[in-house]
Design a protein that fits this description.
Strand content: under 5%
Largest sheet: none
Oligomer: single chain
Number of helices: 7
Radius of gyration: 18 Å
Helix content: over 70%
Shape: globular
Distance between the termini: 39 Å
Structural class: mainly alpha
Number of strands: 0
Order of helices and strands: HHHHHHH
């Protein structure tokens, strides 16, 4: 389980005295705990690895956006810290599909659902996320779906 891998990495980082890595793993575990608490109040049950992967993907997206803003603003030291956290987050994410593989999946789903226009984008995105949500960066997939349907 990914959660156990993160916990083990945190312990190893603490023992090694790696403060940056320890901070990053602690942030990951805090977000996972927040999601656990959020899901406790809902009736839905998710597979643990799916839930953790979703949390990691959101964290990675936030870090990428922060890096872009910091670099645009000339704050290289903050961008460097975000890049370090992003690299730790990416270690725990399952391997992501390439753009070509993603386009092929989108075409398959588009044909299967009979999607032809932008009106069908929601259905295609929902099906793509339900089938391959842990393997695809959904923010990138969104632009690929738009291109396929336009």
């Amino acid at each position: 389980m990914i959660r156990d891998d993160v916990k083990a990495a945190q312990i190893a980082a603490m023992k090694a005295g790696d403060k940056d890595r320890s901070t990053a793993t602690r942030a990951i575990l805090a977000k996972i705990k927040d999601k656990d608490i959020e899901l406790r109040t809902k009736d839905s049950k998710l597979d643990d690895d799916v839930m953790v992967t979703d949390v990691l993907q959101k964290m990675a997206k936030q870090r990428r956006e922060s890096i872009e803003m910091f670099e645009t603003g000339g704050r290289e030291e903050l961008a460097k810290a975000e890049k370090m956290e992003l690299s730790v987050i990416m270690e725990f994410l399952p391997a992501q599909l390439s753009e070509e593989e993603t386009v092929a999946l989108i075409d398959d789903i588009k044909n299967e659902l009979g999607a032809e226009s932008m009106k069908d984008m929601g259905r295609v995105m929902a099906e793509l996320k339900s089938r391959h949500g842990t393997e695809i960066d959904m923010s990138k997939a969104s632009s690929l779906v738009k291109a396929a349907l336009s």
